[in-house]
Specification:
Length: 458
Protein backbone atom coordinates (compact mmCIF):
# COMPACT_ATOMS: atom_id res chain seq x y z
CA UNK A 1 0.00 0.00 0.00
CA UNK A 2 1.61 3.31 -1.02
CA UNK A 3 1.51 6.47 1.10
CA UNK A 4 -1.44 8.02 -0.74
CA UNK A 5 -3.47 4.85 -0.44
CA UNK A 6 -2.58 4.50 3.24
CA UNK A 7 -3.66 8.06 4.00
CA UNK A 8 -6.94 7.59 2.20
CA UNK A 9 -7.63 4.23 3.85
CA UNK A 10 -7.91 5.83 7.29
CA UNK A 11 -11.42 6.93 6.33
CA UNK A 12 -12.58 3.44 7.21
CA UNK A 13 -11.15 3.27 10.73
CA UNK A 14 -14.17 4.85 12.41
CA UNK A 15 -16.79 4.11 9.78
CA UNK A 16 -18.65 1.20 11.33
CA UNK A 17 -22.33 1.86 10.90
CA UNK A 18 -25.46 -0.22 11.04
CA UNK A 19 -28.00 1.71 9.02
CA UNK A 20 -27.85 1.27 5.27
CA UNK A 21 -29.46 4.17 3.36
CA UNK A 22 -31.58 2.95 0.45
CA UNK A 23 -31.54 4.89 -2.82
CA UNK A 24 -33.98 4.06 -5.62
CA UNK A 25 -32.83 4.65 -9.20
CA UNK A 26 -34.92 6.88 -11.45
CA UNK A 27 -36.92 5.27 -14.29
CA UNK A 28 -34.92 4.65 -17.46
CA UNK A 29 -37.40 6.74 -19.48
CA UNK A 30 -37.54 9.74 -17.14
CA UNK A 31 -36.90 12.13 -20.04
CA UNK A 32 -39.03 12.47 -23.17
CA UNK A 33 -39.11 14.76 -26.20
CA UNK A 34 -42.09 17.13 -26.46
CA UNK A 35 -43.84 18.33 -29.66
CA UNK A 36 -41.25 21.09 -30.15
CA UNK A 37 -38.35 18.62 -29.99
CA UNK A 38 -37.31 19.79 -26.50
CA UNK A 39 -36.35 17.22 -23.82
CA UNK A 40 -38.73 17.27 -20.84
CA UNK A 41 -39.27 15.34 -17.62
CA UNK A 42 -42.04 12.86 -18.40
CA UNK A 43 -45.17 12.51 -16.24
CA UNK A 44 -43.93 15.03 -13.71
CA UNK A 45 -47.07 14.88 -11.51
CA UNK A 46 -46.92 11.09 -11.27
CA UNK A 47 -43.21 11.33 -10.51
CA UNK A 48 -43.85 13.79 -7.65
CA UNK A 49 -46.42 11.43 -6.13
CA UNK A 50 -44.02 8.49 -6.46
CA UNK A 51 -41.21 10.41 -4.74
CA UNK A 52 -43.45 11.28 -1.81
CA UNK A 53 -44.55 7.64 -1.48
CA UNK A 54 -40.93 6.47 -1.43
CA UNK A 55 -40.05 9.06 1.20
CA UNK A 56 -42.94 7.89 3.41
CA UNK A 57 -41.77 4.29 2.98
CA UNK A 58 -38.38 5.20 4.44
CA UNK A 59 -36.36 5.47 1.24
CA UNK A 60 -33.36 7.72 1.84
CA UNK A 61 -32.65 9.03 -1.63
CA UNK A 62 -32.92 8.80 -5.41
CA UNK A 63 -30.20 7.74 -7.82
CA UNK A 64 -30.15 9.91 -10.96
CA UNK A 65 -28.18 9.27 -14.14
CA UNK A 66 -26.73 12.48 -15.57
CA UNK A 67 -26.08 11.82 -19.23
CA UNK A 68 -23.21 13.33 -21.22
CA UNK A 69 -25.41 12.86 -24.30
CA UNK A 70 -28.15 15.07 -22.78
CA UNK A 71 -26.10 17.87 -21.21
CA UNK A 72 -23.38 18.41 -23.85
CA UNK A 73 -25.52 17.09 -26.67
CA UNK A 74 -25.07 19.41 -29.62
CA UNK A 75 -21.69 21.16 -29.37
CA UNK A 76 -18.47 20.69 -27.41
CA UNK A 77 -18.26 22.67 -24.15
CA UNK A 78 -21.88 23.85 -24.43
CA UNK A 79 -23.59 22.44 -21.34
CA UNK A 80 -27.34 22.59 -20.75
CA UNK A 81 -28.22 21.60 -17.17
CA UNK A 82 -31.86 22.76 -17.25
CA UNK A 83 -33.47 19.31 -16.97
CA UNK A 84 -31.27 18.32 -14.06
CA UNK A 85 -31.85 21.58 -12.21
CA UNK A 86 -35.58 20.83 -12.39
CA UNK A 87 -35.17 17.17 -11.46
CA UNK A 88 -32.79 17.76 -8.53
CA UNK A 89 -35.11 20.43 -7.16
CA UNK A 90 -38.07 18.05 -7.41
CA UNK A 91 -36.21 15.29 -5.53
CA UNK A 92 -34.83 17.68 -2.92
CA UNK A 93 -38.23 19.23 -2.24
CA UNK A 94 -39.56 15.71 -1.60
CA UNK A 95 -37.08 15.43 1.29
CA UNK A 96 -34.91 12.87 -0.48
CA UNK A 97 -31.13 12.85 -0.98
CA UNK A 98 -29.34 12.25 -4.29
CA UNK A 99 -26.86 9.75 -5.65
CA UNK A 100 -25.73 11.23 -8.98
CA UNK A 101 -24.13 9.07 -11.69
CA UNK A 102 -22.14 11.03 -14.26
CA UNK A 103 -22.69 8.86 -17.35
CA UNK A 104 -20.18 9.02 -20.19
CA UNK A 105 -21.79 6.07 -21.96
CA UNK A 106 -24.87 5.44 -24.10
CA UNK A 107 -27.84 3.25 -23.19
CA UNK A 108 -29.54 3.11 -26.58
CA UNK A 109 -28.97 -0.65 -26.87
CA UNK A 110 -30.88 -1.19 -23.60
CA UNK A 111 -33.74 1.21 -24.30
CA UNK A 112 -35.11 0.27 -27.69
CA UNK A 113 -38.66 1.22 -26.72
CA UNK A 114 -37.81 4.71 -25.47
CA UNK A 115 -34.87 5.39 -27.78
CA UNK A 116 -32.46 5.77 -24.89
CA UNK A 117 -29.66 8.32 -24.62
CA UNK A 118 -26.82 8.27 -27.13
CA UNK A 119 -23.37 9.77 -26.81
CA UNK A 120 -23.28 13.50 -27.69
CA UNK A 121 -24.19 14.18 -31.33
CA UNK A 122 -20.85 15.89 -31.97
CA UNK A 123 -19.01 12.81 -30.66
CA UNK A 124 -21.08 10.63 -33.00
CA UNK A 125 -20.12 12.85 -35.94
CA UNK A 126 -16.45 12.28 -35.14
CA UNK A 127 -17.17 8.55 -34.83
CA UNK A 128 -18.84 8.50 -38.26
CA UNK A 129 -15.49 9.49 -39.77
CA UNK A 130 -13.30 7.52 -37.36
CA UNK A 131 -14.78 4.28 -35.98
CA UNK A 132 -11.56 3.70 -34.06
CA UNK A 133 -12.67 6.07 -31.29
CA UNK A 134 -14.84 3.14 -30.13
CA UNK A 135 -13.86 -0.28 -28.82
CA UNK A 136 -13.61 -2.96 -31.52
CA UNK A 137 -13.58 -6.75 -31.51
CA UNK A 138 -11.40 -9.00 -33.67
CA UNK A 139 -13.90 -8.83 -36.56
CA UNK A 140 -13.83 -5.02 -36.59
CA UNK A 141 -17.32 -4.64 -35.08
CA UNK A 142 -17.35 -1.50 -32.98
CA UNK A 143 -19.32 -0.69 -29.86
CA UNK A 144 -20.43 2.95 -29.79
CA UNK A 145 -21.67 2.89 -26.19
CA UNK A 146 -18.40 4.32 -24.85
CA UNK A 147 -15.15 5.74 -26.18
CA UNK A 148 -12.21 3.35 -26.24
CA UNK A 149 -9.67 4.04 -23.51
CA UNK A 150 -7.19 4.17 -26.40
CA UNK A 151 -8.25 7.80 -26.99
CA UNK A 152 -7.91 8.92 -23.36
CA UNK A 153 -4.87 11.05 -24.15
CA UNK A 154 -5.42 11.83 -27.84
CA UNK A 155 -6.76 15.30 -28.83
CA UNK A 156 -9.32 13.97 -31.30
CA UNK A 157 -12.34 15.85 -29.94
CA UNK A 158 -12.04 19.40 -31.25
CA UNK A 159 -8.58 19.69 -29.70
CA UNK A 160 -9.48 17.94 -26.45
CA UNK A 161 -8.59 14.44 -25.28
CA UNK A 162 -11.30 12.12 -23.96
CA UNK A 163 -9.95 12.66 -20.43
CA UNK A 164 -10.23 16.43 -20.88
CA UNK A 165 -13.83 16.02 -22.08
CA UNK A 166 -14.71 14.05 -18.94
CA UNK A 167 -12.91 16.54 -16.69
CA UNK A 168 -14.57 19.58 -18.29
CA UNK A 169 -17.98 17.92 -17.85
CA UNK A 170 -17.28 17.25 -14.16
CA UNK A 171 -16.11 20.83 -13.62
CA UNK A 172 -19.23 22.22 -15.27
CA UNK A 173 -21.39 19.94 -13.10
CA UNK A 174 -19.69 21.08 -9.90
CA UNK A 175 -19.94 24.75 -10.84
CA UNK A 176 -23.64 24.43 -11.62
CA UNK A 177 -24.64 22.36 -8.57
CA UNK A 178 -22.25 23.64 -5.90
CA UNK A 179 -25.17 24.48 -3.59
CA UNK A 180 -26.57 20.93 -3.89
CA UNK A 181 -23.31 19.02 -3.39
CA UNK A 182 -22.87 17.96 0.21
CA UNK A 183 -26.42 18.86 1.13
CA UNK A 184 -28.83 17.16 -1.28
CA UNK A 185 -26.15 15.34 -3.31
CA UNK A 186 -24.30 12.88 -1.06
CA UNK A 187 -22.82 10.38 -3.54
CA UNK A 188 -21.31 11.02 -6.98
CA UNK A 189 -20.51 8.11 -9.27
CA UNK A 190 -18.17 8.72 -12.21
CA UNK A 191 -18.61 6.60 -15.34
CA UNK A 192 -15.61 4.49 -16.31
CA UNK A 193 -16.96 2.36 -19.15
CA UNK A 194 -20.03 0.66 -20.65
CA UNK A 195 -23.05 0.97 -18.32
CA UNK A 196 -20.83 3.28 -16.26
CA UNK A 197 -18.75 0.28 -15.12
CA UNK A 198 -14.99 -0.16 -15.20
CA UNK A 199 -14.83 -2.89 -17.87
CA UNK A 200 -14.60 -3.55 -21.59
CA UNK A 201 -17.82 -4.18 -23.60
CA UNK A 202 -16.96 -7.86 -23.91
CA UNK A 203 -20.57 -9.01 -23.53
CA UNK A 204 -22.60 -6.60 -25.71
CA UNK A 205 -26.33 -6.96 -25.24
CA UNK A 206 -29.00 -5.77 -27.61
CA UNK A 207 -27.23 -6.26 -30.94
CA UNK A 208 -27.35 -10.06 -31.16
CA UNK A 209 -23.62 -10.71 -30.86
CA UNK A 210 -23.61 -12.10 -27.33
CA UNK A 211 -25.99 -13.94 -25.07
CA UNK A 212 -25.57 -15.41 -21.60
CA UNK A 213 -23.51 -17.45 -20.68
CA UNK A 214 -21.05 -16.77 -23.52
CA UNK A 215 -17.47 -16.01 -22.51
CA UNK A 216 -17.35 -12.81 -24.57
CA UNK A 217 -14.53 -11.45 -26.72
CA UNK A 218 -11.50 -9.26 -26.11
CA UNK A 219 -12.08 -5.62 -27.14
CA UNK A 220 -8.69 -4.25 -28.11
CA UNK A 221 -8.78 -4.00 -31.89
CA UNK A 222 -9.24 -0.27 -32.46
CA UNK A 223 -6.07 1.14 -33.98
CA UNK A 224 -5.13 3.14 -30.89
CA UNK A 225 -5.14 0.15 -28.54
CA UNK A 226 -3.37 -1.99 -31.12
CA UNK A 227 -0.63 0.63 -31.45
CA UNK A 228 -0.19 0.56 -27.68
CA UNK A 229 -0.07 -3.26 -27.67
CA UNK A 230 2.62 -3.24 -30.36
CA UNK A 231 4.71 -0.70 -28.45
CA UNK A 232 4.36 -2.65 -25.18
CA UNK A 233 5.34 -5.92 -26.90
CA UNK A 234 8.44 -4.29 -28.40
CA UNK A 235 9.47 -2.97 -24.97
CA UNK A 236 9.07 -6.52 -23.70
CA UNK A 237 11.45 -7.73 -26.42
CA UNK A 238 8.64 -9.78 -28.04
CA UNK A 239 7.44 -7.72 -31.04
CA UNK A 240 5.53 -10.74 -32.41
CA UNK A 241 3.19 -10.53 -29.40
CA UNK A 242 1.97 -7.11 -30.49
CA UNK A 243 0.36 -8.02 -33.81
CA UNK A 244 -3.01 -9.11 -32.41
CA UNK A 245 -4.87 -10.40 -29.41
CA UNK A 246 -5.23 -14.12 -28.60
CA UNK A 247 -6.36 -16.04 -31.69
CA UNK A 248 -7.50 -19.14 -29.80
CA UNK A 249 -9.91 -17.46 -27.38
CA UNK A 250 -13.18 -18.48 -29.02
CA UNK A 251 -16.12 -16.20 -29.84
CA UNK A 252 -18.77 -14.26 -27.94
CA UNK A 253 -20.97 -17.27 -27.30
CA UNK A 254 -18.28 -19.90 -26.83
CA UNK A 255 -18.30 -21.96 -23.64
CA UNK A 256 -14.92 -22.55 -21.94
CA UNK A 257 -14.51 -26.30 -22.61
CA UNK A 258 -12.61 -26.67 -25.86
CA UNK A 259 -11.38 -23.06 -26.04
CA UNK A 260 -7.57 -23.43 -25.84
CA UNK A 261 -6.75 -19.99 -24.42
CA UNK A 262 -8.93 -20.64 -21.36
CA UNK A 263 -7.65 -24.15 -20.70
CA UNK A 264 -4.40 -25.43 -19.24
CA UNK A 265 -2.02 -25.72 -22.19
CA UNK A 266 1.03 -24.32 -24.00
CA UNK A 267 -0.90 -21.47 -25.66
CA UNK A 268 -3.29 -20.72 -22.81
CA UNK A 269 -3.77 -17.86 -20.37
CA UNK A 270 -1.03 -19.53 -18.26
CA UNK A 271 1.61 -19.22 -21.00
CA UNK A 272 4.16 -16.39 -21.11
CA UNK A 273 2.21 -14.78 -23.93
CA UNK A 274 -1.11 -15.25 -22.09
CA UNK A 275 0.22 -13.54 -18.98
CA UNK A 276 1.74 -10.72 -21.04
CA UNK A 277 -1.49 -10.03 -22.90
CA UNK A 278 -3.77 -10.20 -19.85
CA UNK A 279 -1.46 -7.96 -17.80
CA UNK A 280 -1.50 -5.40 -20.62
CA UNK A 281 -5.27 -5.66 -21.23
CA UNK A 282 -6.26 -5.39 -17.56
CA UNK A 283 -3.50 -2.87 -16.85
CA UNK A 284 -4.87 -0.46 -19.44
CA UNK A 285 -8.25 -0.61 -17.69
CA UNK A 286 -6.67 0.10 -14.29
CA UNK A 287 -4.78 3.09 -15.74
CA UNK A 288 -8.03 4.35 -17.26
CA UNK A 289 -9.72 4.25 -13.86
CA UNK A 290 -6.72 5.85 -12.18
CA UNK A 291 -6.69 8.77 -14.63
CA UNK A 292 -10.43 9.53 -14.44
CA UNK A 293 -10.69 9.07 -10.67
CA UNK A 294 -7.67 11.33 -10.14
CA UNK A 295 -9.45 14.10 -12.04
CA UNK A 296 -12.74 13.41 -10.23
CA UNK A 297 -11.07 13.44 -6.80
CA UNK A 298 -9.38 16.74 -7.65
CA UNK A 299 -12.67 18.31 -8.78
CA UNK A 300 -14.53 17.01 -5.71
CA UNK A 301 -11.74 17.44 -3.15
CA UNK A 302 -13.34 20.18 -1.06
CA UNK A 303 -16.60 18.24 -0.90
CA UNK A 304 -14.91 14.95 0.04
CA UNK A 305 -12.99 16.68 2.83
CA UNK A 306 -16.02 18.46 4.28
CA UNK A 307 -16.24 16.91 7.75
CA UNK A 308 -19.87 17.83 8.30
CA UNK A 309 -21.28 16.63 4.96
CA UNK A 310 -18.62 14.61 3.11
CA UNK A 311 -19.50 13.60 -0.42
CA UNK A 312 -18.64 10.05 -1.47
CA UNK A 313 -16.91 9.50 -4.82
CA UNK A 314 -18.08 6.19 -6.32
CA UNK A 315 -16.74 3.85 -9.03
CA UNK A 316 -18.75 0.95 -10.47
CA UNK A 317 -17.49 -2.43 -11.59
CA UNK A 318 -19.35 -5.17 -13.41
CA UNK A 319 -20.66 -8.27 -11.68
CA UNK A 320 -19.25 -10.94 -14.03
CA UNK A 321 -20.23 -14.05 -12.08
CA UNK A 322 -20.60 -16.74 -14.78
CA UNK A 323 -17.72 -19.20 -15.21
CA UNK A 324 -16.40 -17.89 -11.87
CA UNK A 325 -15.89 -21.45 -10.60
CA UNK A 326 -13.49 -22.39 -13.41
CA UNK A 327 -9.71 -22.13 -13.38
CA UNK A 328 -9.50 -19.30 -15.93
CA UNK A 329 -12.65 -17.20 -15.21
CA UNK A 330 -12.95 -16.47 -18.98
CA UNK A 331 -15.90 -14.04 -18.82
CA UNK A 332 -13.99 -11.87 -16.35
CA UNK A 333 -10.82 -11.99 -18.45
CA UNK A 334 -12.55 -10.73 -21.61
CA UNK A 335 -14.20 -7.96 -19.52
CA UNK A 336 -10.76 -6.82 -18.34
CA UNK A 337 -10.57 -8.30 -14.85
CA UNK A 338 -7.40 -10.41 -14.68
CA UNK A 339 -8.98 -12.63 -12.06
CA UNK A 340 -8.42 -16.37 -12.11
CA UNK A 341 -8.29 -19.19 -9.58
CA UNK A 342 -4.56 -18.39 -9.32
CA UNK A 343 -4.63 -14.57 -9.31
CA UNK A 344 -6.69 -11.90 -7.52
CA UNK A 345 -7.86 -9.42 -10.15
CA UNK A 346 -9.85 -7.18 -7.81
CA UNK A 347 -7.08 -6.18 -5.42
CA UNK A 348 -5.54 -3.78 -8.01
CA UNK A 349 -8.99 -2.24 -8.55
CA UNK A 350 -9.45 -1.71 -4.80
CA UNK A 351 -5.96 -0.15 -4.58
CA UNK A 352 -6.76 2.43 -7.25
CA UNK A 353 -10.08 3.34 -5.63
CA UNK A 354 -8.43 3.61 -2.22
CA UNK A 355 -5.81 5.96 -3.64
CA UNK A 356 -8.55 8.39 -4.66
CA UNK A 357 -10.88 7.90 -1.70
CA UNK A 358 -13.55 6.24 -3.87
CA UNK A 359 -16.15 3.69 -2.85
CA UNK A 360 -16.74 0.55 -4.94
CA UNK A 361 -20.23 0.02 -6.39
CA UNK A 362 -20.99 -3.66 -7.00
CA UNK A 363 -24.18 -5.35 -8.19
CA UNK A 364 -25.48 -8.93 -7.69
CA UNK A 365 -26.50 -8.45 -4.05
CA UNK A 366 -29.84 -10.18 -4.63
CA UNK A 367 -28.30 -13.22 -6.33
CA UNK A 368 -27.75 -16.70 -4.88
CA UNK A 369 -25.52 -19.44 -6.24
CA UNK A 370 -28.37 -21.90 -5.78
CA UNK A 371 -30.54 -19.95 -8.24
CA UNK A 372 -27.98 -20.01 -11.07
CA UNK A 373 -27.59 -22.80 -13.69
CA UNK A 374 -24.99 -25.30 -12.34
CA UNK A 375 -23.65 -26.01 -15.84
CA UNK A 376 -22.34 -22.45 -16.18
CA UNK A 377 -20.16 -22.51 -13.03
CA UNK A 378 -21.73 -19.32 -11.70
CA UNK A 379 -20.98 -17.88 -8.28
CA UNK A 380 -22.31 -14.39 -7.58
CA UNK A 381 -21.82 -15.13 -3.88
CA UNK A 382 -18.19 -16.13 -4.40
CA UNK A 383 -17.52 -13.04 -6.48
CA UNK A 384 -19.07 -10.78 -3.86
CA UNK A 385 -17.06 -12.42 -1.08
CA UNK A 386 -13.82 -11.95 -3.03
CA UNK A 387 -14.60 -8.26 -3.58
CA UNK A 388 -15.42 -7.87 0.12
CA UNK A 389 -12.03 -9.35 0.99
CA UNK A 390 -10.18 -7.12 -1.51
CA UNK A 391 -11.99 -4.05 -0.19
CA UNK A 392 -11.60 -4.85 3.52
CA UNK A 393 -10.47 -1.86 5.61
CA UNK A 394 -9.51 0.11 2.48
CA UNK A 395 -12.68 1.22 0.72
CA UNK A 396 -16.40 1.36 1.28
CA UNK A 397 -18.73 -0.89 -0.67
CA UNK A 398 -21.96 0.36 -2.19
CA UNK A 399 -24.45 -2.29 -3.26
CA UNK A 400 -27.00 -2.71 -6.02
CA UNK A 401 -29.28 -5.43 -7.34
CA UNK A 402 -28.88 -6.67 -10.91
CA UNK A 403 -32.43 -7.88 -11.50
CA UNK A 404 -35.73 -6.77 -9.99
CA UNK A 405 -36.63 -8.72 -6.89
CA UNK A 406 -39.72 -8.00 -4.82
CA UNK A 407 -40.05 -11.43 -3.24
CA UNK A 408 -39.04 -11.90 0.39
CA UNK A 409 -36.26 -14.36 -0.50
CA UNK A 410 -34.56 -11.96 -2.90
CA UNK A 411 -34.95 -8.95 -0.61
CA UNK A 412 -33.73 -11.07 2.29
CA UNK A 413 -30.57 -11.93 0.34
CA UNK A 414 -29.91 -8.21 -0.23
CA UNK A 415 -30.33 -7.56 3.49
CA UNK A 416 -27.96 -10.40 4.36
CA UNK A 417 -25.31 -9.14 1.94
CA UNK A 418 -25.60 -5.58 3.19
CA UNK A 419 -25.08 -6.72 6.80
CA UNK A 420 -22.53 -9.49 6.28
CA UNK A 421 -21.29 -10.69 9.72
CA UNK A 422 -17.60 -10.79 8.72
CA UNK A 423 -17.47 -7.46 6.91
CA UNK A 424 -18.23 -3.79 7.14
CA UNK A 425 -21.88 -3.04 6.36
CA UNK A 426 -22.25 -1.54 2.89
CA UNK A 427 -22.22 2.25 2.87
CA UNK A 428 -25.52 2.44 0.94
CA UNK A 429 -27.70 0.37 -1.34
CA UNK A 430 -29.27 1.39 -4.66
CA UNK A 431 -32.45 -0.40 -5.70
CA UNK A 432 -32.59 -0.87 -9.48
CA UNK A 433 -35.03 0.70 -10.38
CA UNK A 434 -38.23 2.79 -9.98
CA UNK A 435 -41.16 1.76 -12.20
CA UNK A 436 -44.82 0.84 -11.91
CA UNK A 437 -44.00 -2.63 -10.53
CA UNK A 438 -42.52 -1.31 -7.32
CA UNK A 439 -45.86 0.28 -6.39
CA UNK A 440 -48.00 -2.81 -7.13
CA UNK A 441 -49.65 -3.83 -3.84
CA UNK A 442 -48.07 -7.28 -3.55
CA UNK A 443 -44.57 -5.85 -4.27
CA UNK A 444 -44.99 -2.71 -2.16
CA UNK A 445 -46.00 -4.84 0.83
CA UNK A 446 -42.62 -6.58 0.68
CA UNK A 447 -40.55 -3.57 -0.37
CA UNK A 448 -41.59 -1.24 2.48
CA UNK A 449 -40.62 -3.62 5.33
CA UNK A 450 -37.31 -4.28 3.52
CA UNK A 451 -36.54 -0.55 3.36
CA UNK A 452 -37.41 -0.08 7.02
CA UNK A 453 -35.19 -2.96 8.10
CA UNK A 454 -32.31 -1.45 6.11
CA UNK A 455 -32.91 1.94 7.70
CA UNK A 456 -33.01 0.71 11.31
CA UNK A 457 -30.09 0.00 13.62
CA UNK A 458 -29.55 -3.75 13.74
Amino acid sequence: MDAREKSRSTILESSRHKRVPVFVMMPVDIFGIDSTGTPRIRKIKALSISLKALKLAGVYGIAVEVWWGVVERFSPCEYNWFLYEELFRLVSESGLKLHVSLCFHSNTHLSIRTGGVSLPLWIQEIGDDNRDIYYQDKNGSSNDDYLTLGVDKLPLFYGRTALQCYEDFMLSFVNKFDSFIGSAIEEISVGLGPSGELRYPAHPSGDGRWKFPGIGEFQCYDKYMMEDLKMTACHEGKPQWGDKGPQNAGCYNSLPPGVPFFEDGQESFLSDYGRFFLEWYSGKLICHADAILAKAANVLQKYQENKQNPVILVAKIGGIYWWYQTLSHPAELTAGYYNTALRDGYDPVASVLSRHGAALHISCLEMMDSETPPAYCCSPEGLLQQIRTASNKRIHLIGRNTSERFDQKGLGQILANCYHPQAEAVKSFTYFRMNHKIFAVENWNNFVPFVRKMSTDL
